[in-house]
Amino acid sequence: MVRISKQKRNIERLKYQPVLPYPYDVEIFRVSDLKQRTPKERMSVTYRYEFYMLICVTQGECIQWVDFEPISCSTGTFLAISPGQVHNFGHDENWDGWIILFRSEFLIPNTSTLNELKLAFDFGRLPSILNLNHNELRRSIASIEQMIEDLLIEGTEEDIHMLLRYQLYAFVTWLSILHKCKRMNETIDSQTSLRFISFQKLVEKYFAKLSHVSEYATRLNCTEKTLTRATMAAVGISAKAFISARINLEAKRLLMHTDYSISDIAEKLNFKEATHFSKFFKRETGCTPAEFRQQHL
Predict the structure, then answer these.
(1) CB within 8 Å of 35: residues ≥ 6 apart
(2) How far is residue 178's CA from residue 132's CA, in Å, rounded to a whole number?
(3) How many CB atoms lie within 10 A of CB 209?
(4) What is the pTM of this model?
(5) 185, 193 in Cβ contact below 8 A?
(6) What is the distance between the alpha carbons of residues 176 and 218, in angstroms, rounded to a whole number?
(7) Alpha-carbon distance 203 to 198, whole Å?
(8) What superfamily does domain 190-295 belong to in CATH?
(9) Per-residue pLDDT tens for 252-270?
(10) Which residues contact 217 (CB under 8 A, 6 or more apart)?
(11) What angle do CA 18, 167, 73 make, to 5 degrees?
(12) pLDDT in tens, 138-173
């Protein structure tokens, strides 16, 4: 990981740029190795990534911060962090694990070729947090270590790249299947789950334009009550609260990561007045936008 620019409020953008002459678009290393080669003060910086990061905790306990929320991790915790998310490793020392970094370019691009589309993997299907049992963790570690071994195979860069790509796809597809099985065991109705996934994708796409449950229900061809039931079953909060949480998360990102005025942020998030945005933010966060920004200077 290489720092490319320091942003205000102690959030820095990171792009994928391994030490040359490393030629691949995926990099794998242990957390302990990262700590050894990185100054302690750099490990405590909050970053906004321009690449995917997978973290597999193999021993110990820690708290990771993702999009300003603490996530308690222990042996077997698997985290998936996407480009644009904000992450901090926290201050815990007595833990270790594997980290996999890869650029978006490493993924098979969406094309009009049917066979290629069948090979593409939608990382939106991968859960952001997954807790692995002992056997699942062992298999995960074996998959990661196999990728590391294959990095050393003598061959063309193109062939090794292809091998690593499909190994990663196999690994994350298996994790996605695990997630589905766990969700099924939690007796979440499949139709309800699929409706929530569709809702989640729409919110991610339109949260800055649409803020009413009715607008999403119309696009999903269901009633507001049906959509709220699906959201409650999936994440334990109402559809309205889910939309508000996504808007609030983006507000936090803009307040900490940019120099936009509060009025500009209100406009970007489709609030008619800055005062309406401030009331919304205080209701969701417990402080005004100005207070939140001041706290994170």
Answers:
(1) 43
(2) 9
(3) 9
(4) 0.71
(5) no
(6) 29
(7) 9
(8) Homeodomain-like (1.10.10.60)
(9) 989 988 889 999 999 999 9
(10) 223, 224, 226, 227, 239
(11) 70
(12) 999 999 999 999 999 999 999 999 999 999 999 998
Output the pLDDT for position 1: 43
Residues in the chain with pLDDT values less than 70? 1-10, 108-125, 182-190, 297
Q: Give the pLDDT confidence score for residue 117 in this predicted structure.
A: 42
Structure token pair of residue 259:
């120099």
| CATH number belonging to the domain at 2-185, selected among 3.40.630.30, 2.60.120.280, 3.40.190.80, 1.10.10.60 | 2.60.120.280
Structural domain spans, the chain: 2-185, 190-295
- Residue 63 — φ and ψ, nearest 5°? -120, 120
| CA 211 remoteness from chain centre | 22
Helix 190-206 with 239-257: angle, nearest 10 deg: 30
Q: Answer yes or no: are the C-beta atoms of 253 and 86 closer than 8 Å.
A: yes
Q: Structure tokens of 2?
A: 């290489």
How many angstroms separate the most distant Cα atoms in the chain?
62
Query: What is the residue whose two structure tokens read 């695990």?
Result: 178
Closest CA to 225 of 235, 236, 234, 217: 217
- At residue 97, the 3 state secondary structure works out as strand
Strand extents, DSSP E, the chain: 2-6, 11-15, 26-30, 46-49, 52-60, 62-66, 69-73, 77-81, 86-88, 95-102, 129-131
Which residue type is seen at 200?
Answer: Q
Instruction: Note whether 136 and 178 are within 8 A (CB).
Output: yes
Report yes or no: 282 and 255 within 8 Å, Cβ to Cβ. Answer: no
Report residue 3: phi and psi, to 5°. -70, 130
- CA 115, 80, 16, 94 torsion-angle sign: negative
Both tokens of 74, joined, read 């222990």
Beta-carbon contacts of residue 284 (< 8 Å; ≥ 6 apart): 244, 245, 248
